[in-house]
Amino acid sequence: MFERYTEQARRVIFFARYEASSFGSSYIEVEHLLLGLMREDKALFGDLESHLLLELGDSIRNQQEQREKISTSVDLPLSHPAKRVLAYSAEEAERLAHKQIGTAHLLLGILREESRARTTLEQYGLNSARVREQMARARADPTALVDALRQRFAPLAMRLAPEVEPAVIFFPAPEKAE
Amino acid sequence: MTIREMGALLRSGKTSASELVDEALKRARQHENLRAFITVAENEARAEAAERDRELRSGIDRGPLHGIPIALKDLVYTKGIRTTGGSPLFQNFFPSWDADVVSHLREAGAISIGKTNLHELAFGITSRNPHFGSVLNPLAAERLPGGSSGGSAAAVAASIVPMALGTDTGGSIRIPASYCGIVGIKPTYGRVSRRGVLPLAFTLDHVGPMGSRVEDCALAMNAMADRKEDFNLSALADLKGTRVGLPRNFFFDHVDETVAAHVKAAISVMERAGAEIIEIAVPDFAELNTVSHIVILAEFASHHVNHNQRDQFGPDVWSLLEQGRMIAGHEYVNAQRLRTVFREEMDSVWQKVDVLATPTTPIVAPHVDTERVSLNRLEETVRAATTRLVRGINCLGEPAISMPCGYADSLLPVGLQLIGPPFTDARLLQLAKTLEGMLER
């Protein structure tokens, strides 16, 4: 199931499983995946100052119900929302024509699934546009940068009333450079 | 020295245009390490100075700029003098005519000593030009001078010339003015001709002056503007009857505390001088910045449609060109339609206030190696932070000035931005001149 995952992304799953067993959860939930991500790839949250990252982690942990711990030798299944996150992550990788599924795709997957993890991330200003922009910057990938710009622009354009005309500004043509 | 001080010495016979130009050339040489110039036009400047001296001796006085040494951003056409745009694409481009604005300045008697360095093709804020060298901030070499008109700002801040020409498509006059502690005005769109200025984005490009004092910019505007008007109005005795808008949203949300404190102190000075301070909601400039981004990318790509050699560009500018080529036609048109919407929203602001006072940049000049900054829970690139408070104004076309309003603990200047309704450039300069005097008391 995790053949296409990068080494880092695999460790995220491992840590998510560890988080789930620590809280005594019978399933690996979306929140556990997020905690796993935060353990494995702090740079992914580079937009957040370090103390805010800690605060975010505490906030997620405080939302978890603490039950009796489960041994790490017990195999825990993924919850349905967590499965959807992994499916979304795969889609994100495909969309960007990336062969492997990495930690950034997992974060984008989490941001697509309705969950407390997503709500909390958004409270800290982390949304998919920001993550995409960060990914694009890291790779200096113009396609991804434009993609991120479009995500911000599209809702504005959709608000336009049909009667709104474009601003038209006349300009004289400069001499052609030789 | 200011333009007025130079003019007084010139007309009293204590100096000549040739001596002023020689001194400026000497200072340019002394400050070569700033890499403020791409081309120093020594012979041409000396010949012009001799001619201006001859004119003065025979009773011909072209006005306040007569015999004053200035510098021109290397984006404006200069007849017979190389105009590179800071790019290898134009490294052998010798225009056969002067840009309109250059003609106007020349007719007013100003003498260009050379062409200033800039961010490649004016598309960036660092002025770290991979082809012609990185401009240094004369106030602190380890800090960015800002851009794209970084060379012009450095030439003024280092007192090489009292005035230099800049262009502003997303803050390129106001940003370096803020980081180098000088004055710069982006006039109302179209107030100064762009004919003969290498375009970055046709509908966002503005040409304007950068000076050591507000009056230097005002005197330059008298020469530069196509439609003649007196931009150099006397400073006011007080600011009674002036409604100063203090934006309630956006402009102070993510700003360094010291910068915000200095800007608010300057606003208090205006209040004590009789201005009415009105807290006001302004359009969503974050959205306007997004619109501006679409427009600038698409228009930049349209101009460089034939330029496909990656090795002719620095990596940042090449990436911007690639991005511009991906903007769809409908997106560009809708961005222009959104400008109409924001224009109307801004017009309602001008019903309530005469001027908006904001920081120019949310930070003082950052260290050259700083890539990201964090301000009140918002972490962003230096580029995004630097352009955040200025870029949207280009989308609207309003006149906007940046002027120093104090110094942070690091002894780096803080820029105050004053924005006025379209075609109130003269009044805005008058307000800035009045405030400049008050801040110095």
What does the model show?
- The complex is a heterodimer of chains A (178) and B (441).
- Chain A contains 8 helices and no strands.
- Chain A is elongated, with a radius of gyration of 20 Å.
- With 178 residues, chain A is mainly α.
- With 441 residues, chain B is an alpha/beta fold.
- Chain B has helices at 3-11, 17-30, 42-57, 100-107, 150-157, 174-180, 214-224, 257-272, 285-303, 315-326, 329-350, 382-387, 391-396, 425-440; strands at 37-40, 69-73, 111-116, 128-129, 133-134, 163-168, 183-186, 206-211, 243-247, 276-280, 355-359, 372-375, 378-381, 400-407, 413-419.
- In chain B, the strands form 3 sheets. In chain B, strands 1-3-2-6-8-7-14-15-11-9-10 form an 11-stranded mixed β-sheet, sandwiched between helices. In chain B, strands 4-5 form a two-stranded antiparallel ribbon.
- Chain B is globular.
- Chain A binds chain B through residues 46-49, 52, 125, 137, 140, 142-143, 145-146, 149-150, 152-153, 156-157, 160, 164-169, 171-172, 174-175, 177-178, and chain B through 77, 89-90, 93-97, 189-190, 193-199, 202-203, 287, 290-291, 293-294, 297, 315, 319, 322-323, 326-327, 330-331, 333-341, 343, 372, 374, 377-381.
Structural category of chain B is alpha/beta
Give the CA-CA distance, first to last residue of chain B. 19 Å
The percent of residues in helical segments of chain B reads 25-40%
* Basic shape of chain B: globular
Write the H/E string of chain B, N to C.
Answer: HHEHEHEEEHEHEEHEHEHHHEEEHHEEH
The neighbouring-strand order within the major sheet of chain B is: 1-3-2-6-8-7-14-15-11-9-10
In short:
Chain A is an all-alpha fold and 178 residues long. Helix content of chain A is 58%, strand content 0%.
Question: Layout of helices and strands, plus pairs?
Answer:
The complex is a heterodimer of chains A (178) and B (441).
Chain A: H1 7-22, H2 30-40, H3 50-63, H4 80-95, H5 103-112, H6 116-123, H7 128-139, H8 142-158
Helix pairs in contact in A: 1-2, 2-5, 3-6, 4-5, 5-7, 7-8
Chain B: H1 3-11, H2 17-30, E1 37-40, H3 42-57, E2 69-73, H4 100-107, E3 111-116, E4 128-129, E5 133-134, H5 150-157, E6 163-168, H6 174-180, E7 183-186, E8 206-211, H7 214-224, E9 243-247, H8 257-272, E10 276-280, H9 285-303, H10 315-326, H11 329-350, E11 355-359, E12 372-375, E13 378-381, H12 382-387, H13 391-396, E14 400-407, E15 413-419, H14 425-440
Parallel strand pairs in B: 2-3, 2-6, 9-10, 9-11
Antiparallel strand pairs in B: 1-3, 4-5, 6-8, 7-8, 7-14, 11-15, 12-13, 14-15
